[in-house]
Amino acid sequence: MLRRAILVVAMAAVSVAFCQSTPRLKVVKGSGIKGKVVLTGNCPGPQRRGEPCPAHPYQGPLAVRLISNDKIVATTYTDKFGDFSVAVPPGKYFITQGGEAKYPMIHSSDVTVVKNKFSRIEIQGDLGMR
């Protein structure tokens, strides 16, 4: 009976873990980077004057890289609004798309993180669709 109860609880925990559609932002303290990523270039076909093609929030993986050697020092995910927060020690970084995908092309400007502060950045990525 006890084994069955443990099995039921374990299966419930696993199913809850796999059913979450959006990774949740972690509450982080200390220093790091907070920001938002939006994607452009997401309207197919030739764009005509006056036709809006608004940017959309990016939901997916990001990699935080050291400027000095391009090494990935942290990874994180944006939420469905494109927001992210990641703790990193003081230093100079840039952010790219995470994982093996070529698209969307995400490459931030340089971000300087100082002790006990979170630097804010807005990143505009490109889906590559024209």
Query: What structural class should be given to the helix and strand makeup?
Result: mainly beta
Please tally the helical runs, counting DSSP H or I stretches of 4 or more residues.
1
**C-alpha Rg, in Å?**
19 Å
Number of strands: 8
User: What's the end-to-end separation, in Å?
Assistant: 61 Å
- Low-confidence spans: pLDDT under 50, at least 5 residues? 2-27
CATH H level, superfamily name: Immunoglobulins
* CATH level-two architecture: Sandwich
Polypeptide structure, described:
The protein is mainly β. It has a single domain (26-126), classed as Immunoglobulins (Immunoglobulin-like). Helices cover 14% and strands 36% of the residues. The protein is built from one helix and eight strands. It has one helix at 2-19; strands at residues 32-40, 56-57, 61-66, 72-77, 83-87, 91-97, 111-113, 118-126. The longest helix has 18 residues, at 2-19. The chain is elongated, with a radius of gyration of 19 Å.
List keywords for this structure.
four-stranded mixed sheet; 130 residues; four-stranded antiparallel sheet; mainly beta; disordered N terminus; 1 helix; Immunoglobulin-like
Short description:
This protein has 130 residues and is mainly β.
